[in-house]
Amino acid sequence: MPLQFLLKRRSVVASQLREPGPDSAQITELIRAAIRVPDHKALTPWRFLVFTKDARADFGRAIADIYEQTHGDECLPRHLENERNRFMRAPLVIAVISSPVESEKVPVSEQLLSAGASCQNILHAARALGFGGQWITEWIAYDQQVAKLLRLEKTQSVAGFPYIGTPAIVPKERPRVEPQELMSYWKN
Ligand SMILES: Cc1cc2nc3c(=O)[nH]c(=O)nc-3n(C[C@H](O)[C@H](O)[C@H](O)COP(=O)(O)O)c2cc1C
After folding, report:
1. Domains of the chain, first to last
2. Atom of ligand 1 at shortest distance to CA of 138?
3. pLDDT tens across 87-98, in order?
4. pTM confidence score
5. 160 lines ligand 1 (CB under 6 A)
6. How far apart are CA 79 and CA 13, in angstroms?
């Protein structure tokens, strides 16, 4: 992989992701890349839930209902509209589910990090296929009722929702800290 692929990496915000999204063969390749991450003891501590087409609107209606129940009088029509459209921002959304397994050798934190690596690999693979994407969590990643809706087990959690589509913009550079400001050599 040319180094510039990493050094020029930028997310494309979800609101700027358009059709077409990856087709089903490409989605399979994204998941293949997601699985190809460092995985201590080969525990496969991740699952992938794919949202395309009408499934995005179905999910939006369900989270709007949850939002309405939990926010009561504070809930305005525009809030519900936002929830209904949440997954409609991109042609493809993948829920990357951290699924840690019992292990004497591998702490849960390592397994969660591996799920984070899956999110990042999905974004890299999407870009390699000519798409853009953004790793988003928002409230739905941390809500117990949404976890139920996603049929997560108690030990599972959402590591991220990578949103993928065709970029409508070329993202501008974002200032980055110089490596020297963050690094040092141990006893050199
Ligand atoms: C775990 C994680 C969760 C994130 N959640 C959100 C989010 O909910 N909303 C958001 O706007 N950006 C979120 N981001 C940041 C974006 O993915 C992205 O990094 C940001 O838009 C900056 O763009 P860049 O990746 O090109 O630097 C999250 C990043 C990480 C690592």
Report:
1. 3-182 (3.40.109.10)
2. 8
3. 999 999 999 999
4. 0.97
5. yes
6. 20
